[in-house]
Amino acid sequence: MTLDSKIPPGPIDQKWEHAKAHYKLVNPANKRKYDVIVVGAGLAGAAAAATMAELGYNVQCFVYHDSPRRAHSIAAQGGINAAKNYQNDGDSVYRLFYDTVKGGDYRSREENVYRLAQLSVNIIDQAVAQGVPFAREYGGTLENRSFGGVQVSRTFYARGQTGQQLLLGAFQALERQIALGRVKMFPRHEMLDVVLVDGQAKGIITRNLVTGTIGSYAADAVVLATGGYANVFYLSTNAKASNTTAIWRAYRRGAYFANPCYTQIHPTCIPQSGDFQSKLTLMSESLRNDGRIWVPKKGGDTRRADQIPENERDYYLERKYPSYGNLAPRDIASRGAKEVCDEGRGVGPGGRGVYLDFADAIKRLGRPVIEERYGNLFEMYADITAEDPYSLPMRIYPAPHYTMGGLWVDYNLMSTIPGLYVGGEANFSDHGANRLGASALMQGLADGYFVLPVTVGDYLAGQLGKKVAATAPEFKQTQADVEQRINKLVSAKGSRSVDSFHKELGNIMWERCGMARTAEGLKTAIADIRTLREQYWRDVRVLGTNEEPNQALERAGRVADFFDLGELMCIDALHREESAGGHFRVEYQTADGEAKRDDDNFLYVGAWQFKGEEGAPELHKEPLVYEEVKLATRSYK
Amino acid sequence: MDLTLEVWRQPSRTAEGKFVTYEAKDISPDASFLEMLDVVNERLTEKNEPPIHFEHDCREGICGSCGMMINGVAHGPAGGTATCQLHMRHFSHGDNIRVEPWRARAFPIIKDLIVDRSPLDMIIQAGGYISVNTGSAIEANTLLIPKAVQDRSMDAAACIQCGACVAQCPNGAAQLFTSAKVSHLGLLPQGQPERYERVIRMVEIMEEHFGSCTMYGECEAVCPKEISTDFIARMNRDYLSAKFRTRRNETER
After folding, report:
1. Using CB atoms within 10 A of its CB, is residue A368 exposed (0-12), middle (13-18) or buried (19+)?
2. Residue A128 and residue B190: Cβ atoms within 8 Å?
3. CA triple A627-A427-A330, angle to 5 deg
4. Given A67, A131, A168, which is nearest B121 (Cβ)?
5. What is the mean pLDDT of residues A444-452?
6. What is the distance between the alpha carbons of residues B202 and B1, in angstroms, rounded to a whole number?
7. What is the pLDDT of residue A78?
8. Burial environment of residue A264 by CB neighbours within 10 A (0 to 12, 13 to 18, 19 or more)
9. Mutate to test the interface with A, among B3, B42, B54, B57 (most CBs of A within 10 A)
10. CA A585 → CA A398, A421, A573, distances in Å?
11. Cβ contacts of B230 within 8 Å, gap of 6 or more
12. pLDDT band at A8 (very low <50, low <70, confident <90, very high)
């Protein structure tokens, strides 16, 4: 199968207009005859479900939380980008597009990114209309701040809770449609498989997390908005339940998985403090607007931060990247931290940390201004570490945060399974090999509010009269597969807990497929994952039964999929013999240690096709063509 | 540190529950309360005993999933934090800690420390939104909002819908939660067209499911986002004004 990205014709700034002018439409009176399933209710899922319901479709929305408002989009702190140019600082749709392509190290699809930049302005309008309380100037207009990898101020924010406020906007729109009876909500339901009838996605299989009931649900189209897979590393900034199961099950049913090795390690997280650690906490990138990152010039310096004089500090990002300084993109800032710690100059317990220092900003702006900008982040830091970041610098270290890879989708966000759409972090489309800060919220909402509602309609227009009931044999068969797998897990009465396996897998991934990767390390990782997975199925201990709330069983299924995904990530990272963005292969770097791309051989999206339990996955390539942006070596110096 | 936990265990909504005592030894003061429970659960699993079920997800104090009564106080002794952000350094070696699920008639127990908080979503469904379809928004900066108004609205919007306010209230009332949403939207110019209908609809559904507010103020004391009871006063004022207004015929809408 060749990958057809279905890019509309015409100049780049008119492609989306052209596409919309040519999509098939569904008659308003017919819309209620179509059922659409949306899995996930984060920014992309809630926005898509609410908007499609507003259009008149029957929507069924499934989440594993007790309420759609719990999705992990809620934890996004810093902000959302939009090319409004309210600051008159030279911003434009083109510049946002260009920054995103460059930030992604030239591994994203130009046309999708351009559309994203165009839609960014509509998102802000929509959010404000919903009552999202973005920060404002005294004159009443919207305020902006800067984020990494750009030289304009285009980030809109609501204190340090931008994700929460945007998600509440989408959640409230969704609740309104639930009240109107146009969305049927299925809380505490986890999707465990997608059902194909004649090669098209026609429904899903779910487990009711309270009763254990396995259910079949049919629809004319299925939208997956189930987020990213950074929890493959065990310790990440993701919520505990965030997982790959929905997209992994779809992969096993024929959806191609694109660029799984592109993972984002976020530079500013609170360092790990012990073995009991269950997750890592992000400190928003916005802190880098005012915080200065440094380590002592000489290794083994154990003096307290405020005892180290200015001339014995190394502000390494400002030194290496004078024009972007502390606002260098995430992949670069993370590698910088790893490098200085590897040199033995790291601070804090174990030497895995660098300082993020606000002393200068407090001196310049006064404490009240810093409190106003970052107060809740400072409090969170103090809660977790019992240190006061107003008087001592924060200690930070990189942690897995976001995954640019995901299910392959065309311009219309449809996967290689007809009728199966993928939005938000779950797809691969817009961020290339590295995502810029404040762009995930933008992409989730662009997909959910503006792209999916029209592109899904285009597909549905051809599906009239092709409804399949949830009693069809394909549903029975898929449900039987799901039940068999659950039985296998609950009957596993081995000796080790699910979490102990997950931690071990995470450690393999972090050491071998984290911030720096080598061919040798990846080969070792693949072998280690296979051994561990074999042990897992033999020796995992899942107590209790299926017919009750069973959190160990929930985790057991997710971790089983993480094993398979982790292996594919390593295979992808091994095959990509270049460095690009968050994928840093030690063998491929410039003389000064920067990522060295190989555009002659790797200027493509690597999309993997599942070939059965025993077969090796097959690689398909979607060539990347750059017509608007000239390929160049990324420089932030 | 070593601790003794008394944890409410209840296999299902209809089953009988009881307190079970567990020894939690060698707990790091830097661990969060939920990480302490993780450690206890790992040890229970080793002993083939069913782990304690509790709800949690982001562990950053923002998703609102977690929450339990810790020695009778919702989210525990630290104040201004959700349970996931409560760290063990707030306890001392040898402490006895009683852990219970949210206590409220509106929140039936699902299992152990997990309760059903869906009536809170029903309050939002009753009117906790601004009716604006995707695509019909005006240019964002055509709406000027004084900074102070925006800040006040944000103070209310910070609610994470954890349900601590209800759990701590001797009456099981949801006034703090409801008033936070009523105020978030009612303070903003975008929220004005539906302001009075919204407060009536939300308050009516609230009263169907929850107890009455008699201004104990315990909700504010345990709210992880420190949302002020001033919003309750504001909601009551709006509700009263709404009642005095001529209500449009419901069938018009």
Report:
1. exposed
2. yes
3. 75
4. A67
5. 98
6. 46
7. 85
8. buried
9. B57
10. 17, 32, 8
11. none
12. very high
Could you tell me the two tokens for B50? 């069913």
3-state secondary structure of B163: coil
Q: Which helix (H) or strand (E) holds B3?
A: strand B3-9
Residue A613 CA to residue A609 CA, distance in Å, equals 12
CA distance B218 to chain A (A): 22
Q: Which of B27, B121, B137 lies closest to A129 in CB terms?
A: B137
B 225-244 near A (Cβ less than 8 A): none
Q: What is the pLDDT of residue A634?
A: 84
Q: How many CB pairs under 8 A join A and B?
A: 210
- Which DSSP string corresponds to B20-50? EEEEE-S--TTSBHHHHHHHHHHHHHHTT-P
As a whole-number percent, the residues of chain A with pLDDT over 90 amount to 91
Question: Which chain A residues are Cβ-neighbours of B32 within 8 angstroms?
Answer: 278, 384
CA distance B213 to chain A (A): 25
Q: Residue B65: pLDDT band by 50, 70, 90 thresholds?
A: very high
Identify which of B35, B24, B26 has the alpha carbon closest to the alpha carbon of residue B96. Answer: B24
SS3 (DSSP) at A615: coil
Residues of B whose CB is below 8 A from A171:
124
Phi (first) and psi of residue A605, to 5 degrees? -90, 125
Helix, coil or strand: residue A14? helix
Query: Does residue A154 carry a catalytic annotation?
Result: no
The token pair that represents A378 in the structure block: 């400072």
Q: Is B109 on the interface with A (CB under 8 A)?
A: no
CB contact under 8 A, B28 and A179: no
Q: What is the token pair recorded at A182?
A: 């146009």
Structure pTM?
0.97
| Residue pLDDT, tens place only, A102-126 | 999 999 999 999 999 999 999 999 9
B1 at A interface, C-beta within 8 A: no
Give me A433's structure tokens.
Answer: 């090999």
* Chain A residues inside the 8 Å CB shell of B154: 133, 158-159, 165
- According to DSSP, the β-strands at B96-100 and B3-9 are parallel
In order, the DSSP letters of A383-427 are: HHHS--TTTS-EEEEEEEEEE--EE---TTSB-SSTTEEE-GGGB
The secondary element (H helix, E strand) that includes residue A621 is strand A618-623
What is the ipTM metric for this complex? 0.97
B140 and A133 within 8 Å at the Cβ level: the answer is no
Report angle CA A208, A213, A216 to the nearest 5 degrees.
Answer: 85
CB-based contact, B125 to chain A, within 8 Å: yes
User: What is the amino acid identity at position B237?
Assistant: R
Q: What tokens were used for A519?
A: 């061919």
Give me the residues paired with residue A293 across strands. Answer: A356
Residue in A closest to B153 by C-alpha: A133
Task: Report d(CA A232, CA A229) in Å as an integer.
Answer: 6
CB proximity B204 to A under 8 Å:
no
A253, A330, A585, A597: the active-site residue? A330
Q: Which residue has the tokens 């509602």?
A: A453
Distance to chain B for A55, nearest Cα, Å: 9
Distance (Å) from the alpha carbon of A370 to chain B's nearest alpha carbon: 16
CA–CA distance, A633 with A506 (Å, rounded to integer) = 32
Nearest Cα to Cα of residue A73 among A93, A37, A48: A48
